[in-house]
Amino acid sequence: MPTPVKSVLPVVLLGCGGVGRYLLRHIVSCRPLHANQGVSIRVVGVADSSSLLVAEDVHSSGLDDALLTNLCAAKSAGSPLSSLLGQGQYQLFQNPEARSKVIDAATTLGRTTGLVLVDCSATYDTVSLMKDAVDHGCCIVLANKKPLTGAYEDFQKLVSNFRRIRFESTVGAGLPVIASVTRIIASGDPVSHIVGSLSGTLGYVMSELEDGKRFSEVVKTAKSLGYTEPDPRDDLGGMDVARKALILARLLGQQISMDNINVESLYPSELGPEKVSTKDFLESGLGQLDKSIEERVKAASSRGNVLRYVCEIESTGCQVGLKELPKDSALGRLRGSDNVVEIYSRCYESSPLVIQGAGAGNDTTAAGVLADIIDLQDLFQKTA
């Protein structure tokens, strides 16, 4: 006998990049699992940077699975959403009208059946949409870090109703970092200190240097493996780690901004993108960094330590950069592209709570987003 549907979660997805496409694939492939749990995810709209595809009647229907599958294939091939015209019962809107249609859906569903607005984009431009969705009683799920790392007032607004927001995938992809921190805080156990290696790219680079390899060689290998951004300086500059650190610091109650975080870049400003092309950086710039990095690796090794690129969050502030750590510590033993986070509190003072695992990748991040969506099911109206 089929399990009765207990919760229907209408979803509008912002962002059809790697994470967004994997999320749609996960939603489709997990239909049998969710049906057995009495849960139905109804994708009523999907938006990219220029347009919105939305179901004709967001109250009663969503975009069908065949259309979602074709949408993923089209976006993977670089085609616009308009290439799907004629493949189903939906409406297509271009910007700026698309934004108003998202607000219409939030207004219509936010105060009736409910709506989950999911941000898998990589832009600050979704902040106002997210704030409007909160005002209309919608739930929001974020893989995009930027709405939470802009103005502190925006962060406050988005988390004002903590029951209706999930953002686990902004820090450590699918790892339960946010959930662990919030559970510890909720128990009345004050978190005093967090140390984390939150970049799979930099975790891989730093662990490979222990084998005596040159920094330039390791970065180029990481790029060939797909671990880095097209321009590796986007990783080596440390700003992505800083955004994750800022989210954690704000979660602990620190009213700070990116300007308050001391971020150590692994390349000097004279080798920055505004002065040196990506091609020249890879061919000649990287090699200029080998000697200084090698000296730091050897100095750490002489003291029985290793170098790791970490964020460190304390009550006195937040730091992001290279740090010497004991070889036998959780962070010191880190190899490959895993993330590791150590959380210290009264209960975890001498032996921290350690969370380790895959902390990057579109598949892993999308799985974390899907888990966040499912975690909201109890807030939605039950259906017969």
From TrEMBL:
<keyword id="KW-0486">Methionine biosynthesis</keyword>
<keyword id="KW-0560">Oxidoreductase</keyword>
<comment type="pathway">
    <text>Amino-acid biosynthesis; L-threonine biosynthesis; L-threonine from L-aspartate: step 3/5.</text>
</comment>
<dbReference type="InterPro" id="IPR001342">
    <property type="entry name" value="HDH_cat"/>
</dbReference>
<keyword id="KW-0791">Threonine biosynthesis</keyword>
<dbReference type="GO" id="GO:0009086">
    <property type="term" value="P:methionine biosynthetic process"/>
</dbReference>
<dbReference type="Pfam" id="PF03447">
    <property type="entry name" value="NAD_binding_3"/>
</dbReference>
<protein>
    <recommendedName>
        <fullName>Homoserine dehydrogenase</fullName>
        <ecNumber>1.1.1.3</ecNumber>
    </recommendedName>
</protein>
<dbReference type="InterPro" id="IPR011147">
    <property type="entry name" value="Bifunc_Aspkin/hSer_DH"/>
</dbReference>
<feature type="binding site">
    <location>
        <position position="229"/>
    </location>
    <ligand>
        <name>L-homoserine</name>
    </ligand>
</feature>
<dbReference type="InterPro" id="IPR036291">
    <property type="entry name" value="NAD(P)-bd_dom_sf"/>
</dbReference>
<dbReference type="Pfam" id="PF00742">
    <property type="entry name" value="Homoserine_dh"/>
</dbReference>
<dbReference type="GO" id="GO:0050661">
    <property type="term" value="F:NADP binding"/>
</dbReference>
<dbReference type="GO" id="GO:0004412">
    <property type="term" value="F:homoserine dehydrogenase activity"/>
</dbReference>
<feature type="binding site">
    <location>
        <position position="145"/>
    </location>
    <ligand>
        <name>NADPH</name>
    </ligand>
</feature>
<dbReference type="InterPro" id="IPR019811">
    <property type="entry name" value="HDH_CS"/>
</dbReference>
<feature type="active site" description="Proton donor">
    <location>
        <position position="244"/>
    </location>
</feature>
<dbReference type="GO" id="GO:0009088">
    <property type="term" value="P:threonine biosynthetic process"/>
</dbReference>
<dbReference type="InterPro" id="IPR022697">
    <property type="entry name" value="HDH_short"/>
</dbReference>
<feature type="domain" description="Aspartate/homoserine dehydrogenase NAD-binding">
    <location>
        <begin position="15"/>
        <end position="164"/>
    </location>
</feature>
<comment type="pathway">
    <text>Amino-acid biosynthesis; L-methionine biosynthesis via de novo pathway; L-homoserine from L-aspartate: step 3/3.</text>
</comment>
<keyword id="KW-0028">Amino-acid biosynthesis</keyword>
<comment type="similarity">
    <text>Belongs to the homoserine dehydrogenase family.</text>
</comment>
<keyword id="KW-0521">NADP</keyword>
<feature type="domain" description="Homoserine dehydrogenase catalytic">
    <location>
        <begin position="176"/>
        <end position="374"/>
    </location>
</feature>
<dbReference type="InterPro" id="IPR005106">
    <property type="entry name" value="Asp/hSer_DH_NAD-bd"/>
</dbReference>
<feature type="binding site">
    <location>
        <begin position="15"/>
        <end position="20"/>
    </location>
    <ligand>
        <name>NADP(+)</name>
    </ligand>
</feature>
